Amino acid sequence: MPRLNVQSARIENLISNWMLPLLLVAGNVAALTKLLNETLQSLGVDARLHPNRLHALLSNDVTRSLNEATVALAEQAARATFQADPTVTDGAATAMGELQAKARELRVFSVGSLDEIAERLSIPPALAARLLKETSDTARTSVAGAMRSTDGAGSRHEPPDWSYQDTAVTRCIDAFTRRPTGRVGLVLPTGAGKTRTALRIVLTMLAKRPEDMAPAYWVTHRHNLREQAYRELQKLIVKQDDPVEGVRLTERANRIKFVMVHELSALLDAAKVQPTLVVVDEAHHAAAPSYQHVFAEPRAFPVLLLTATPNRGDRLPIGIDEIAFTITYRELAERRAVLTPKFLDFPVADFDWSPAAIDDLAEDIVDRASTDFTKVLVLAPRIDRVEEFYRALLHWLPDEHPLDVADIGFVHGTANSLGIETEDFLARFRNKPRAILVSAQLLLEGFDDPSINTVVLTYPSTSVIRLMQAAGRCVRYAADKRAAYVVQARNDTIAYHFDQRWLYQEIDDFLRPQLIDVDYLSQDDLYEKARLLLTEHRVREKQAQRVLGHIETLVPGETCRLFFYGLPHFGRADRFEQEANWGVVLETADTSAMLRGIFNAFCSSGADLSDPSDFLQREGAAYGLTKDLNAGSQWMELTGLLTAAYFAKREVHGPSSIDAEGTRPFQPHGATTWLKYASLTFRPAIPAALSEFLRDCHNAAQIEAAYLETPSVHAVVVKVPLPLAGSEAFLLDAAASAELTAALNGLRQKLVQVAPAEQFGALAAYLVSSIHPRLPARLLHRSEFLVDPAARAARVLPLTDNLNVEYTKEHNDE
Q1: How far apart are CA 341 and CA 682, in angstroms?
Q2: How far apart are CA 411 and CA 378, in angstroms?
């Protein structure tokens, strides 16, 4: 069936004349879909429109397309709906005016790119494009918006910083030096290179015992994990440039034995020497019965437990004595080692996947696979569903698509679409530049294909381990990869929806604390937004003042998080948000390790202690925490936090809620009502005053980029006129600003002492003889335009912390 691009003339006419006015009146895409389908039903039309089709229609994405039948159905429904309601035009105009006001307000503290407007106002990109077109100069905002893009695409040109792997190797070797027969944990999220890092540790340990040729055992429970580790070892050897070291590396590599877990006991019994090291891959399985003989082994040897997370979904311990190194997704993203994925929702009525729902998903995946979904992994909950999705994808594959039938496949534990060995099948898929693969969950462990940029999750899960592993399939670094996508089938009424922000948190999600993200522009803005949060949560005055007093000492950019813990609420559930009281623990760089360590350990233990005193005394000792029953002490605040965590566990996981029914508005599969974790992040925006000041500057975009990179470094921005028209701007730090002031004062003194006819000569002599190393030569040579104090005031803008506030107040006073 023919397909129409969403920016074709026919679809643009549909969007502009019919869909956007109806969307403005309906309020959102879901309501619009319901409205259009009700119209179709009233007309006696059996076909129905689906929300994902309207999302594609309103995507403003030149790479998207829809089949002609869908477009025709949308046209029929939109025209009939519009004609049936004569108030649509006036209602749309009113709603558009309200959106324009909100967009203008946003842009006071933001550059207002299309993506940002769409996200902040929760509107489709097509409507955001209309807003920008009608309210602003889109060229300027698109340049600035691209400069501030947060999807990771702009940063992929810089190579990743892999130095954390060196640190991990060093710390693990040090841990084994201190614990020669210890069980040391290496926790690296999926995509961080944990296999390569662990192999470097193994090779380093083998180098320490060259005389007895003692082996190292790499133990796993899956054949594909074993093959992956072996392939990674071969890559390490091949990349060794020094021939002599290459020979030594090969000798050590030959001592590594990749074995299945059930084979280890026999190998240890037959060995003449104790192993140098035993590596347990995917060690969160170590609590399973199949691994018990490894840990029950009476002979002492060092064990490296390698995992993406030390916490099992069933909370069983996995035998780690010490975690030598761990890193979060947040830091990996900052180091460019992984991409920050875009999370996309695919609404479903349930997870039974009717034929119509399967078709909808398959058509959407095939559509996106022709553009931005370059290599797709679809994860299904069971074998029969794997093959159902596979057949639907083939059905919707058009002749003109970049993929052909051979590029779509399926694999599960008993079969695959090519009828060959699983490893051979995966190797073929890995070598394809574009493809769609449907699989059961077997690929969540050990499958390594960095070219995958899209993962589709078709099942609900309460296991953060599974969800993180799934997301990790598409965020791995690849030199030519610019974006990553995680598509989640979502129904909030029947399943825990994994919030992508959990990928970047450093606290356990077992109790599902509600996440709050707050951006601030300056130290004063940080203080004010923290004050508002404390007020909104009705934190006791003394506790709030202690927190605010500490926040006053923080420098913008320092760690600042507020961990709110609930207090008993005996009022009505529908008044909870307005009346419930909270306590709070402030997390800073000084307290972060202690707070996260104690809270995560409490979650790992099951959070079943109604009196956490003994637990806090035991765990807190490692951080120097001592028992202190005085009000406001760290001990008392952490006691309050862990007590709330106990109630959260009973609320989220059972066996039953503690409080009387109805006193807290907990929603099944949602966040707990006992815990909130607020991260206050320094995200400076371009102040409106600076944007206005740079309006006539040819290098405005470069100045804004430099300002955003290090806003606190710059004291003033100066601009001087160009020979024909416009200006050129310069950012100066405090030292350079002082030097400019001194230079201008010195030049003025020289000029006032000579006759007007001699001033050009005096100016030239001053510029030649004076030395100002901190000032750009181009600025110094145009300094004549800054000599007069009145002219200088108009051409120099101080960059204060309150620049946004000052600018807003000044213009309001006008």
Answers
A1: 21
A2: 10
DSSP annotation of 711: G
Distance of CA 70 to the CA centre of its chain: 34
Task: Specify the DSSP class assigned to residue 609.
Answer: -
% the chain with pLDDT above 70? 84
Cβ 302 vs Cβ 180: under 8 Å: yes
> Strands 714-721, 796-798: parallel, antiparallel or unpaired by DSSP?
antiparallel
Q: How many CB atoms lie within 10 A of CB 400?
A: 8
**3 state DSSP class of 491:** coil
Q: Per-residue DSSP letters for 206-225?
A: HHT-TTTT--EEEEES-HHH
> Which region holds residue 461: left if phi is over 0, alpha if psi is between -120 and 50, else beta?
beta
Distance CA 647, CA 567 (A): 10
Instruction: Assess contact for 190 and 469: CB atoms under 8 A.
Output: yes
DSSP code, position 19: I
Spell out where 45-159 has E strands. Answer: 65-67
In angstroms, the CA 484 to CA 190 distance is 14
Distance in angstroms between the alpha carbons of the first and the last residue of the chain: 60
* Element housing 393 (H / E): helix 383-396
CA 348-489-416 angle, 5° bins: 115
Enclosing H/E stretch for 346: strand 342-347
CA-based R_g, the chain, Å:
31
Q: What are phi and psi of 256, to 5 degrees?
A: -90, 125
pLDDT tens track for 752-768? 888 888 889 989 988 88
- Which pLDDT band, with edges at 50, 70 and 90, does 802 fall under? low
C-beta neighbour count of 63 within 10 angstroms: 14
Q: How far is it, in rounded angstroms, from Cα 167 to Cα 304?
A: 16
**Residues 150-176 as b or e (16 or more Cβ within 10 Å = b):** eebeebbeeebeeebbeebbebbbebb
**What Å distances lie between residue 431 and 450, 452, 579, 744, 802, CA to CA?**
11, 11, 58, 64, 54
In this prediction, residue 662 carries a pLDDT of 47
- Decide the pairing of beta strands 65-67 and 183-187: unpaired
Q: How far apart are CA 313 and CA 658, in angstroms?
A: 23
Number of C-beta neighbours around residue 468 at 10 A = 21
Res. 813: pLDDT tops 80: no
Return the minimum-mean-pLDDT range out of 4-8, 25-29, 539-543: 4-8
Does 542 or 443 have the greater pLDDT score?
542
- Distance between CA atoms of residues 348 and 99, nearest Å: 29
Q: Are 729 and 700 in contact (CB under 8 A)?
A: yes
Burial (CB < 10 A; 0-12, 13-18, 19+), residue 498, is buried
Residue 345: pLDDT band (50, 70, 90) is: confident
Confidence at residue 806, expressed as pLDDT on a 0 to 100 scale: 45
Question: From CA 681, how far away is CA 712, in angstroms rounded?
Answer: 15
Q: Please, how many CA atoms are within 13 Å of residue 403, restricted to the half-sphere of its CB? A: 30
Mean predicted confidence (pLDDT) in 238-267: 84
Q: Alpha-carbon distance 377 to 452, whole Å?
A: 7
Q: Encode pLDDT of 453-488 as tens digits.
A: 999 988 876 555 566 667 778 888 887 788 888 888
650, 656 Cβ separation under 8 angstroms: yes
pLDDT tens figures, 308-339: 765 444 344 456 777 788 787 777 887 888 88
Q: How many angstroms from the chain centroid is the CA of residue 412?
A: 30
